[in-house]
Amino acid sequence: MDVFSHGLWGAAAVKALNLKRKTQDSLMWAAFWGMFPDIFAFAPTFVFRLFHGLDFGPPTRDPAGMMVLPGMSLALSLYNLSHSLVVFLFVVGIYFVIRKRVPWILVGWPLHILLDIPTHDHRFFPTPFLWPIPHPKVDGISWGTPWILIPNYLLIIAAFIALAVWERRLKRVQ
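The structure corresponding to this sequence follows.
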């Protein structure tokens, strides 16, 4: 799924949690955590390449047959870390041990991973959702396919409309 959709889904999930739990967690931070796996994986390589004037060039295939841009080995390593539910649970576990509470604001991170599993195919960044544990790779359907992309954005709009209606009803009850 595209990075902006992930941010919007993360914000929608935290908005729903805010309404359910009667909290005010930041939707901007929720959107960030929804986009975090892709930002973490791609921003360092992008910034490095931008400042060093390297040509992005056409994608090539790695030995596994995946399409990659030149010089993307760092991004591939970071992608494994940021797109792993195992890593996410490890981070949340450390947070919970230290703070004695669940960091609900991070809900966009695992949601990002779960949305990526069926919307990435083997040719372009299949989601390593159980990394470093060996796991089956899911050959999904690319999120760039119009019949995935368009309904995705329509569902995001519907989700925010539903959340606004829910919020309005809660305010009437109070």
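The chain has a mean pLDDT of 88.
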